[in-house]
Amino acid sequence: AIADGAAIGDVNLAQFERAQRVIPGGVNSPVRAFRSVGGTPRFMVSARGPYITDAQGREYVDLVASWGPAILGHAHPAVVEAVQRTAANGLSFGASTPAETELAEAVLARLPFLEKLRLVSTGTEATMTAIRLARGFTGRPLLIKFAGHYHGHSDSLLAEAGSGLATLSLPGSAGVTEATAAQTLVLPYNDLDAVRAAFEQNGPDIAAVITEAAAANMGVVPPDEGFNAALADIAHEFGALLILDEVLTGFRVSEAGYWGLDRGYTPDLVTFGKVVGGGMPLAALGGRAELMDYLAPTGPVYQAGTLSGNPLAVAAGLTTLQLADEAVYDRLDVVAETVSSAVSNALSAEGVAHRVQRAGNLFSFVFGDFAAAPRTYAEVQTQEAFRYRALFHAMLDAGVSLPPSVFEAWFVTAAHDDAAVSRILEALPAAARAAAAA
Ligand code: PMP
Predict the structure, then answer these.
(1) What ipTM is given for this predicted complex?
(2) Is the pTM of this model over 0.90?
(3) How far is the CA of 193 from the centre of ligand 1 (A)?
(4) Which N-terminal residues, if any, form the signal peptide (predicted)?
(5) Could you confirm whether 388 is annotated as catalytic?
C-alpha cells in the first residue's frame, strides 16, 4: 500500500520500506514514524540554516530543528568548523579534555546557583542520573512527576509521559516492573493542591519532584505563574529536592533557559540536553557542589559513560553557547511570534477553533473550543487532533516540515530569515483550509 502523500517511485517510501525491514518501525525514535499524523516519514539527507532536504531532493522550511538543538539553524558554519577542527585531533579519548571544563564553566555562568556540572550523552541519562542522585542524597525512594511530562525513557520516568507516548496513546511502557512504577507518583500538572497532598501523605519517602521547566512534550503547556517556585518551596519544606528538567528549554528560550524567564526560585538539580550539545549527543546535569559531589568518584552515587564529554559534542555545544547572544534570542522570539500568530490568524480565518500555547519561543496549538488555555495533560488530550493531521500534511506538501504530532512543540531557529518565514506564511491559507475540512 502507498502511504498518504507518497507517490509511486517515491524515494522516501522506498527508504522507509527498506528501513522497516531492519529497524523496528523503520525509525530509531518513535515519533519519527509519523504514527500520529499518518503517511510516510521523510528520510533526510542534509540541512542548512532553516532548511532541510529529503532523500527525494525536496527542500522544506524546517520547524523541528532536530527537536530543539538547532537554535542557530542547521550546520552553522562556525559550529561545523569547530567540530571538523576537533575531529582532526581525534574522535574520542576516554580521558578528560580541557574543553569539557570550558563547557561546564559556560553553563554554570548562565545559571549562577549551579556550582558543578556532569556531562552525559543524552537527556535520558541526565534525568535518570538526577533522580538516582536525589534518591542517593536523600535516602528516600519516591519520585513525583507530572502527567504529560516527558523526561526521557528510563524506567521510572515513563509513567504517563508525553512526547511519543502521548502520540501512541500509551499509558507507560511494557517492560517496566510494577515495583519500579510504584515508586513514581504521577500528579496532574499545575495542581499545587495535589502536590501538597502527596507530600502530606508520603513526605518522608519523597526524594524529589521532577518537572519540565515548561511542559513542551504534550504540546506546550506553560507552568502557571509561580508554579515552579511553589514546587521548590513545598519540596524543600518536606526535605525533598526539585529537579528542573531544562533538556528542551535550556539555552533555547533564553540564555538561562526557562528558569531565566521565571527566576526567583532555586531548583536543586537542573538537567540540560539538546542545545547544550549543539546538535551532537551531549547532555548534562548540574547542582550545588555538596549535591553534585555525591556522584562518583567523590560520592557514593555511581554514574559513568564511555563517550561522556565527547570532544566533538563538546566543541559543538561550546561553540553554540558562545554564538547564542542576545541577537539570537531576539530573532528566535520574533520568528516565534510571527509564525505562531500567522498560523493562528490563518486558522481563525477558516473558522478552526484553536488556542496558541506559548512558553518563551516554544509554541504549539490546541484544536477545539477551549474556554481557557489548557493547563493539564487531561485537557490537551480532549482536543481535535485530526485537524493537526490535515494541517501537518498540507504544510509538508507545501514544503514546510512541522513536528509530526500535535503533542510536540514547534521549534524555530535564528536562521529563519524573512525568506524562510515567507515560505511558511504562504503555505498557511491552504493548510488552514485543510484543517477546517478535516
Ligand atoms: N527531558 C525533556 C524535557 C525532553 O524533552 C527530552 C527529549 N525530548 C528528554 C528529557 C530526553 O532527552 P533524550 O531524547 O536526549 O534522551
Answers:
(1) 0.99
(2) yes
(3) 27
(4) none
(5) no
